[in-house]
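Recall that a protein's primary structure is simply its ordered list of amino acids. Everything else, from secondary elements to tertiary packing, is in principle encoded there. The following example makes that idea concrete.
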Amino acid sequence: MNRLSYILKAKTQYNIQSPFLFDLYSNVIVPRVGKELLKSTGDKTTDKVNRMIFKLMDHYGAKKVETKQLNVDHELATSDGDHIGLVVKPHRDKKREKEWATLVKEQIITLSVDLYDMGLVFTSPKLSKQHWLLR
């Protein structure tokens, strides 16, 4: 999917009806992290990923895990036993897009959020199966 196609299909906060997703969007995706909290590495993608991991850990009280249950680039586990996965550049090439599509369809994934530059997946029995494209 190219960026223009993504922009035309992606939703904004005004289209979100799920309380969990609205909380994720307004408290994790949109807010900026102060520069004093995270040092820049010089690589924009790495900085975006580090900021997102920091915000997810802060908001959900999650910790990074080494033994990955999900096929993702970064995985976090919450105290509830739920897992949050982060995929960097899921639309980088056709192979990566196919891997992303397969991951989203997995039974264990209940919520997936496509932000174009990164994708988030959640495993939680409290959520219903959903896939969102958000700007």
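Residues 111 and 130 are 5 Å apart (CA to CA). The chain has a mean pLDDT of 87.
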